[in-house]
Amino acid sequence: MASSEPNAALARGRREAWWKIRLFRGMANDVRRRAPFYLSDWVDAWDYRVVPATIYMYFANILPALAFSLDMFTKTHMQYGVNEVLLASVLGAVVFSVLACQPLVIVGVTGPITVFNYTVYDIISPRGTNYLAFMCWISLWSLVFHWLLAVTNACNGLRYVTRFPCDIFGFYVAFIYLQKGIQVLSRLGDAEPFYLSIFIGLSVFVVAYICGEIGRGSLFKHPVRVFLKDYGTPLTVIFFTGFVHIGRMRNVSLEVLPTGIAFEPTDGTRSWLVRFWDISVGDVFLAIPFAVLLTILFYFDHNVSSLIAQGTEFPLRKPAGFHWDIFLLGLTTGVAGILGLPFPNGLIPQAPFHTESLCATELVKDSSDDGDDDDAAAAAAATGLPSAGGSGSGVDDEGGEFKGHPRNTVHARVTHVVEQRVSNLAQGLLTLGTMSGPLLVVIHLIPQAVLAGLFFVMGIQALEGNGITAKILFLVRDVSLTSRSHPLKNLPRGQWPIWGFVAVELVGFGATFAITQTVAAVGFPVFILLLIPVRAWLLPRFFLSQELAVLDGPTASPFTMESVGGNYGEPKEDPLGGGPDASQGRPGAGGLFGSGMATVVPCENPSAINLRSRSREDLAELGESSDGRGPVVIEMQPTAVSPARTGIHNRRGQAGSSGGGGMGRTH
Amino acid sequence: MASSEPNAALARGRREAWWKIRLFRGMANDVRRRAPFYLSDWVDAWDYRVVPATIYMYFANILPALAFSLDMFTKTHMQYGVNEVLLASVLGAVVFSVLACQPLVIVGVTGPITVFNYTVYDIISPRGTNYLAFMCWISLWSLVFHWLLAVTNACNGLRYVTRFPCDIFGFYVAFIYLQKGIQVLSRLGDAEPFYLSIFIGLSVFVVAYICGEIGRGSLFKHPVRVFLKDYGTPLTVIFFTGFVHIGRMRNVSLEVLPTGIAFEPTDGTRSWLVRFWDISVGDVFLAIPFAVLLTILFYFDHNVSSLIAQGTEFPLRKPAGFHWDIFLLGLTTGVAGILGLPFPNGLIPQAPFHTESLCATELVKDSSDDGDDDDAAAAAAATGLPSAGGSGSGVDDEGGEFKGHPRNTVHARVTHVVEQRVSNLAQGLLTLGTMSGPLLVVIHLIPQAVLAGLFFVMGIQALEGNGITAKILFLVRDVSLTSRSHPLKNLPRGQWPIWGFVAVELVGFGATFAITQTVAAVGFPVFILLLIPVRAWLLPRFFLSQELAVLDGPTASPFTMESVGGNYGEPKEDPLGGGPDASQGRPGAGGLFGSGMATVVPCENPSAINLRSRSREDLAELGESSDGRGPVVIEMQPTAVSPARTGIHNRRGQAGSSGGGGMGRTH
């Protein structure tokens, strides 16, 4: 409560030394900024978009939750099951939808936390320790650490979280998904059920994937496409759950998802309240290092989920609040521990999907070709380097994404996001209803093979949207078939920096993934955390600032980052020598984990891309950006991009004019 | 031998009444035209392209042959097996490579002939008749009928074979493939081998399909892409043949491809010479109706294969000769019958693949955007209807074909085709070598599931290239996402003619496919043949000529059609009111069975399409074209199209100037 006016506080903060931590300032400012919108968060829910968003999020949330529950059920010997996972989702949904500063963020059980849970189980249970009591103590210590982070404004560190660690984390999570899918299948023996399960798992993947592709393509009318994209995966799960009962498959008995009794813990012998006092004092303190690791994981994972759910592609009008939400996350972690639930935190990709599903759109006629060509020329000019030829003939399409939309005649423009708390709360209550007897019976019918297929879908979709994947695809692409104006093609030192950057990313991923295969798996959050200083202090020694500007980018816009004091390394002077354009920063909209590079990916239409580099007053408190190193911001104006994938229209003119200086038309 | 000069003969033929058949004239003219090139057909083979073409064709030919041999082995109770199918391929290759007027046409055992063979088996074997002797008599009668067709210049009827019956036939063949793949799998019981086989079959399909997609995309350097496209399928077969022996799959014994003794007939009790005298006289004459059906099938199938292998997308310089080749086909049919082999005929898609693999290319820099836009404007103008807007902003990409090549900076241009006889002969001799003991042992390792996957690959690839598929995709595409200048979008009566035309095509396909499921399957060639008069006389009553001009098109260019007296319905006056452009006719290059509509399909780049309608002196002898009804010719200049898929550069200026009159630039 240091200041009566947040902006004044921010301005004053810049003048202060970084080590003078003003306790509670972040949380207080978050609440101050958000409180005026609280009533509107409920009133604004009176909008049709809330209905499909709720139904969509229910399925998008519960299906992975079921897959994770199967994974934990097996690996923790029934300590966690479907009911625990569902109740954790309900807990997260209720607390965050009602109390959070960022109610759009969907909270639930993630892949990394399941890895954490069963690794702790592997370490602790041979000691004879009561597992759930130990987990409870982890949660209680973690609650303390979360609150310490919240009170000391530790989320200000988010300014260093660029796309680089996010991409590596996303890549890691994707491979965890794929591995889990294979593990589910490989547990099924070697007889008929095994091979039938492989067939079913692959079929679920292929069908759900094709539904997603159609949703992004140009086949069928817009409502059909949206329906397939939104409900393709649930319908695929339902279909294949029934499919295995036809023909000669009827005679094969498949392993199904184990479920318990309605509203009861999976381990029938305990009550919801964990007997956390039933543990030795030594084990209570042994829980501290685990709690530290958990806190690191949640600090990173939850905040990144929040950042991406409030990415620049969404025209949000209500302020973010990271400090307050990390405080809430400590609360839910503690409660979950006491109830013996896996700890919920921010979900990727569900959180950004939620924001996307709340986007209200309007149909807009495309501008004429002349205007489009102008933009393409601007795109070429924005790289700041002499174009290889006189032609602004376009920007590489990166392998056919949005392949159906090369030349739209109309497109959907996002006018606003229905920012409210009801859809998050409602999907949580639906999940609570799923814990009732009849629905548990239905869930019990789902073959494990279908859930394996679901893991494959999640893994491949996460890989597709990843910035590392995008860079690798660029590198293996035939160089004669990529556009001359592609930013990655105009680096002064050629392709080697890209190879180097991707190599660093893959080493980071490989180390994290490798440790997950050992009993030290519980330490993987440390690896993720280490990536942030690697990016901030190590990489600038080997890469030029303009290379890093193209290879990396900020995760969220200054509007969202206001809660944490702005972005890291916003350059005072544009390192690529762009014009006097001063529009707002726009990082990648290419995918959930897309890098800055990915911003130029999804647009097949050269007219759709509006690359602008611009200078902007540096908000960072630490003065790191004065060396001019740091991500350049690539603005994307996705006029022809499928709204199904990216959202999206950006906020124009929110922080400056959008006129491009010195961007002549080249043809 | 009616005339000493073919062109003079042709000119004279136009003045004669159609019923005055000049016997032997077609054959004689074919030989006269081709003979001067015979020596060069061997000398020209001194070219590197012949080596990869030979290896590629060997695999492209033998893998489907093995799949068909499995099918016939099962359904004719070992009368036909691997050795018979291989020897039939060898027979066709040797005879046609050495003697044919069209040595590029690959001849072997096709899907339709396997249907014919086992249907005859189902009809004849319950009567106690010696099956192979009966087949021999069919072949001998058919030899007579083929020679009658050749002598009476019956191939002149090919001018009526537009894309309409070809598309339906191709659609039919594709579904036969898919059905055969399912049949192979469904014969494998319901235990572990069954489900493992489904998994393997689907995996073969997916991996081979992805290899093909990469071959057409922009990932990897050009040589890698070409390698994957050419050898992806054989390598997939080899990989999965080994794959089933690793891990826990080792314990599952899979059904493999049955093979016999090297160079011996599969039925070990007989010699290669069929005891065709060992049959009742009644059965000899019963063979006549079957021989008629076989002749109809071959007349259509072989000639269509030849037409497509010499499509307009290939810049051929040596003349075609349909009459002579149908005479040769009678010969090989008779010989195959006497040896107890399935009868070989022209193979789709292998024949056009062969021509494609012999294309020599050079790298060309793209022209400037201005020129490209001109072409796009010409494309819009060529529809002859007022454009909906002032923008020539491009032509619909039809669902992402060639998705990796939207804006090339360089492209490969086909300079010429290495027209020679050696690659066809060599791949035939390689096939002969495969009948030796060691290689038969290798072939015996291939699981049936892998061959099922091969059927799926062939079926889906055939469907993808089909003109019916292209039209259906256009119809289900979101109308707001297709280009205003798409020819199908500018029909005066809207979309209904397209629905109607597709409905007629699907009814034709459905009737043919339905009869194949019955014991009357042997009659399916009649349905295919009936489609030709339906197109020529029935459809013009319901469709406007300009609709048919867009919905249908000729199969081959006038250069190829010179052997049969030119194309049907080449309009004297362009029905769409094009300019005085008199360039040569160019039908669809969109796929193996692509319709005229498909010509505009593969070009994502608006600059790549050069649509020109033009008037041309009518060569048809029958005067049918004077009513102005008939296919308009759509010229395609695929400057930016992947050479991997279409070939291809067309012959410019071979029959006139290529200047477009009245084609203003619209933006």
From TrEMBL, chains A, B:
It holds the Pfam family HCO3_cotransp. Residues 656-667 have a biased composition (Gly residues). It is found in: Membrane. The chain crosses the membrane at residues 55-73, 85-111, 131-152, 164-182, 194-212, 279-300, 320-341, 496-515, 521-538. Keywords: Membrane, Transmembrane, Transmembrane helix. It comes from the Eukaryota. Residues 383-406, 561-591, 609-667 are annotated as: Disordered. The keyword Membrane applies. It is a multi-pass membrane protein. Residues 22-192, 194-362, 413-553 form the Bicarbonate transporter-like transmembrane domain. InterPro entries: HCO3_transpt-like_TM_dom, HCO3_transpt_euk. PANTHER family: ANION EXCHANGE PROTEIN, BORON TRANSPORTER 1. This is Bicarbonate transporter-like transmembrane domain-containing protein.
